[in-house]
Design brief:
CATH topology of one domain: Jelly Rolls
Function: E3 ubiquitin-protein ligase which mediates ubiquitination and subsequent proteasomal degradation of target proteins. Involved in chromosome segregation and cell cycle regulation. May play a role in the acrosome reaction and fertilization.
Catalytic activity: S-ubiquitinyl-[E2 ubiquitin-conjugating enzyme]-L-cysteine + [acceptor protein]-L-lysine = [E2 ubiquitin-conjugating enzyme]-L-cysteine + N(6)-ubiquitinyl-[acceptor protein]-L-lysine
Number of helices: 15
Strand order of the largest sheet: 22-23-35-26-31-32-33
Protein name: RING-type E3 ubiquitin transferase
GO cellular component, one term: acrosomal vesicle
Distance between the termini: 39 Å
CATH architecture of one domain: Sandwich
CATH class of one domain: Mainly Beta
Structural class: alpha+beta
Keywords: Coiled coil, Cytoplasm, Cytoplasmic vesicle, Cytoskeleton, Metal-binding, Repeat, Transferase, Ubl conjugation pathway, Zinc, Zinc-finger
């Protein structure tokens, strides 16, 4: 018996690697099974969701006013933790629902769905094994009785129904013969208590009795009848238990039967590791040798270039020095002038003429040079600028002689930046790479290159977060197949928005006209259907009738800071206005009825007089620009050209709005190039809201924040 106990202890201690949570790197505590079938501690899932939730919403909530036409208050951090675990927690515009995060085990993105953590099964089997490991590790540590008066006695058994441990005396007291408690299930001393019956997370009063072969998870009969598994193939729990246990036992027996082969392969792996160590060091030495040769060539070229520059500099300085000495001789009592003054003192005519003739020629030459001054040499060294652009590009692509794997290419059309950066790439040949490494770095305004950040990716896309606003970032990717690495792809440069992304949805209550506007359930897309109502009332339309704009605003206000949001205007839209709204003018506008048939309140009555523009600008609640018929119209300005060809631009695919509340400035951007198309001052003395208006047929889609997408797992059971 003692020998068996020792073997069991050794076996338990040898599996420690399987009992470590990939997130916290500690022994599992209440492990949950993720959709990818990996397990993770309950507290680790909460922390991951909370961390992602905070990083997504800090930007949208820290500098935002929660007072909208519907008052909403920010939740404290502890409430956030509870809200993540609470069933039925829904998304609102301030705190978007975060249920997607990368699994720490496989790095694939997993989505917990509507129920969040409550939709996950607790891994009781793993929890039991961890508990046995803990007991084996602390063999001498006894489990004390939970019911004893101090000092407690060592427990002798644990009741699974009461979830408590007892000594012999306490067990007899609390489980007397002839009572219901006497029928409780008891085991040896343990701290791991689990329910006798596994209940369904979706239907908490129903027990698990079936197994979904498609989703590879236990389900109850309600899940099959009308739930998410109604069209899935299911089997009985006993059948699934028998099938999986037979498969697992068969595989384990096979591995045990191959123990000698495994030991042989372990020895071979040890030899391969030593060989890899030696070959790696040899490769490093060869690489160092090649780089040292390059350094020698560069040093030689550097020395040659510097000598040429020094020689040219010395020659030019000598010429300037000679010219300067000649000009100094033109000063009175100096050089040539002083000598000429002495010659003039000669009274003998023959001697004077003999000397003065040559002197006069020199004086004339000096006089001409004085009239047309020309430096003896050039000061510019533009002919001596070293052009290293080609060499820099070649050095940037410097890689191994033959990698045997193609270079991946970044898909510029599918890569974009908003609240995060989404980078997509593809490989010339499918399934040629095992993994990829995505590199990115910030490019400073003085074009100083910072060090590259690296992220290992299993797929062909990645979301990069925590990028600074209003900065250029360079991205590149390289592929790995086994131990072989490809050269890096060409760099993609993306410019981040000028301010943190502001999160909001369309407000369906404040000023929303449900007869003219159609809002989807997610409240991120609005469509104008005013034309249909106009047709129904066609018999009442007379000459002079003017169609009015239908307004809709965001459901979150801004009272400080810098914010940026983006949207897409549907190409078929006739007339759309976008911008910001002031709360004080907005309330006044909504309280005062507007006569739809009067041109006095019509924003586009067809007149183009300055008085009309001034009158309307003072009365309207919005600061807007006009978009329509696939064009972007820049408003008239006294400081810029008002010619139509200068004011009408092609409509960008996606349009961004940048509001600097503190400086009272709003700008409109082309999201494709992150270029400001129009900017103006705006009165920010009150709460500001994102604002939109539509007339005729049209639609607006708010830009969806970039988040990690759920990956479906296609493995068969």
């Amino acid at each position: 018996m003692e020998g068996d106990g020792s073997d069991s202890l050794v076996t338990i201690k040898n599996i420690e690697r399987e009992l470590i949570c990939p997130a916290c790197k500690e022994l599992f505590t209440h492990p949950l099974i993720l959709p990818c079938q990996h397990s993770i501690c309950h507290k680790c899932v909460k922390e991951l969701l909370l961390m992602l939730d905070d990083s997504f919403n800090d930007v949208g909530s820290d500098n935002s006013n929660q007072s909208s036409p519907r008052l909403r208050l920010p939740s404290p951090s502890m409430d956030k933790i509870d809200r993540i675990s609470r069933p039925g927690w829904k998304r609102n515009s301030l705190t978007p629902r975060t249920t997607t995060f990368p699994c720490p085990g496989c790095e694939h993105d997993v989505d917990l769905g509507e129920r969040g953590i409550n939709g996950l099964f607790r891994n009781f089997t793993l929890e039991t094994i961890v508990e046995r490991y803990r007991q084996a590790a602390r063999a001498a540590t006894a489990i004390m009785c939970d019911l004893c008066k101090p000092p407690p006695q060592e427990s002798t058994k644990s009741c699974m129904d009461c979830s408590a441990s007892y000594c012999n005396e306490c067990f007899k007291i609390y489980h007397p013969w002839g009572t219901v408690k006497a029928q409780h299930e008891y085991v040896g001393p343990t701290t791991n208590f689990r329910p006798k019956i596994l209940m369904c997370p979706e239907h908490e009063t129903e027990r698990i009795n079936m197994y979904c072969e498609l989703c590879r998870r236990p389900v109850c009969h309600l899940c099959k009848l009308g739930g998410n598994h109604s069209n899935h193939r299911v089997t009985t729990m006993s059948s699934a238990y028998k099938t999986l246990k037979e498969k697992l036992s068969k595989d384990i027996d096979y591995l045990i039967g191959k123990e000698s082969q495994v030991k042989s392969q372990i020895s071979e792996l040890n030899l391969l590791m030593k060989e890899t160590e030696c070959n790696g060091e040899r490769a490093k030495e060869e690489a160092i040798t090649h780089f040292e040769k390059l350094f020698e060539i560069l040093e030689e070229r550097k020395s040659s270039v510097l000598k040429a520059i020094d020689a040219s500099k010395k020659l030019r300085l000598d010429k300037f020095q000679t010219q300067m000495e000649e000009y100094q001789g033109l000063l009175e009592n100096n050089g040539l002038v002083g000598y000429a003054q002495e010659v003039l003192k000669e009274t003998d005519q023959s001697c004077f003429v003999q000397t003065a003739k040559q002197l006069h020629l020199r004086i004339q030459k000096a006089t001409e040079s004085l009239k047309s001054f020309r430096p003896a040499a050039q000061t510019s060294f533009e002919d001596y600028v070293v052009n290293t652009s080609k060499q820099t590009e070649l050095l940037g692509e410097l890689s191994f002689f033959s990698s045997g794997i193609d270079v991946p290419e970044i898909n510029e059309e599918q890569s974009k930046v908003y609240n995060n950066a989404l980078i997509n790439w593809h490989h010339p040949e499918k399934d040629t790479a095992d993994s990829y490494v995505l590199e990115y770095r910030k490019i400073n305004r003085d074009e100083e290159m910072l060090s590259w950040n690296e992220i290992e990716v299993c797929g062909t896309s990645k979301v990069i977060s925590d990028l600074e606003s209003n900065c250029n970032y360079a991205f590149r990717v390289r592929a790995y197949k086994g131990s072989i690495c490809s050269p890096c792809s060409r760099e993609l440069i993306l410019h981040t928005p000028p301010a943190p992304v502001f999160s909001f949805l369309f407000d369906e209550k404040c000023g929303y006209n449900n007869e003219h506007l159609l809002l989807n359930l997610k409240r991120d897309h609005v469509e104008s259907r005013a034309g249909f109502n106009l047709l129904l009332a066609a018999e009442r339309i007379q000459v002079g009738y003017y169609t009015s704009l239908d307004y809709i605003i965001g459901d979150v206000g801004i009272t400080k800071g810098k914010h940026f949001w983006a949207f897409r205007v549907e190409p078929y839209s006739y007339l759309v206005k976008v911008g910001v709204a002031s709360s004080d003018k907005l309330q006044e506008w909504l309280r005062t009825p507007r006569d739809a048939v009067s041109p006095r309140y019509e924003q586009d009555s067809g007149h183009d007089s300055g008085s009309e523009d001034t009158c309307f600008d003072s009365s309207q609640p919005f600061t807007l620009v006009t978009i329509g018929m696939k064009k972007f119209f820049i408003p008239k300005s006294p400081t810029s050209s008002n010619e139509p060809e200068n004011r009408v631009l092609p409509m960008p695919t996606s349009i961004g709005v940048f509001l600097d509340y503190d400086k009272g400035k709003v700008g409109f951007y082309d999201m494709d190039h992150m270029k400001c198309l129009y900017e103006r001052q705006v009165d920010c003395s009150h709460t500001m809201y994102p604002a939109f208006a539509l007339m005729g047929s049209g639609g607006i889609q708010l830009e969806e924040p970039i988040t990690a997408k759920y990956l479906e797992y296609q493995e068969t059971m």
